[in-house]
Specification:
CATH architecture: 4-Layer Sandwich
Number of strands: 14
Helix content: 25-40%
Radius of gyration: 16 Å
Order of helices and strands: EEEHEHHEHEEEEEEEHEEH
Strand order of the largest sheet: 1-2-3-4-5-6
CATH topology: Metallo-beta-lactamase, Chain A
CATH superfamily: Ribonuclease Z/Hydroxyacylglutathione hydrolase-like
CATH class: Alpha Beta
């Protein structure tokens, strides 16, 4: 059975997720840990729960979701996987990181790509890769049908949606992604977003002021 731990890191209050199951395998999604105490929090959780880190995934590559990539790669010896359209977004982080106070940012190389319609496995858990651009050009989400779980990144939040005024963002594209890929999921699907509290597909379809069903 899938279990999910959420840790909120960095000044952007970004949600970093550790996905794990009874086998002890785990996947880290969007590590936003930058300060040493944040890195230690992630390490302590993984150590205390005796987890084996098998994969590192980015839903997208804006700075708040990637500042811990290199730390995770070096600490656990795993590869980084992103959608190919977001690789330029990842490369750009080094240029503007100091402007946001991340003067010690260490860029991480990409080891493989996540493709629309593909799958990511964790023990007996299977995630479908959903291509949901609009907030970022190569944004993906991870959906486990069996566990009724969606890791949505910055596409859909509790009564909100991702901003579209950053390079590569587009509101019409984001709205289409939400309607086509997310609102077709069962209403009782739990949504774990990149910021803020979790929500559900049904709740957002009924109440989201930006994109109603």
């Amino acid at each position: 059975m899938l279990q999910i731990a959420s840790m909120t890191f960095n000044p952007f209050q970004e949600n970093t997720y550790v996905l794990y199951d009874a086998s002890g395998s785990c996947i880290i999604v969007d590590p936003g840990c930058y300060e040493p105490d944040e890195q230690e929090e992630l390490k302590t959780f993984i150590s205390q729960n005796k987890l084996r880190v098998e994969k590192l995934l980015n839903t997208h590559c804006h700075i708040d979701h990637v500042v811990g990539n290199e730390f995770v790669k070096q600490t656990y010896g795993v590869g980084l996987y992103i959608h190919p359209l977001d690789e330029p977004v990842l490369r750009a982080v080094s240029a503007y990181a100091p402007n946001y106070g991340f003067n010690r940012y260490q860029p991480a190389t990409v080891d493989g790509y996540l493709e629309e319609g593909g799958e990511v496995t964790l023990g007996q858990v299977k995630f479908n890769i959903l291509f949901v651009p609009g907030h970022a050009p190569g944004h993906v989400a991870f959906y486990s049908e069996a566990d009724k779980t969606l890791i949505s990144g910055d596409v859909l939040f509790y009564n909100s949606i991702g901003r579209t005024d950053l390079p590569g963002g587009n509101y019409e594209t984001l709205e289409k992604s939400i309607r086509k890929e997310l609102y077709r999921l069962p209403d009782d699907t739990t949504v774990y977003p990149g910021h803020g509290p979790k929500t559900s597909i049904g709740f957002e379809k009924r109440t989201n002021p930006f994109v109603r069903a």
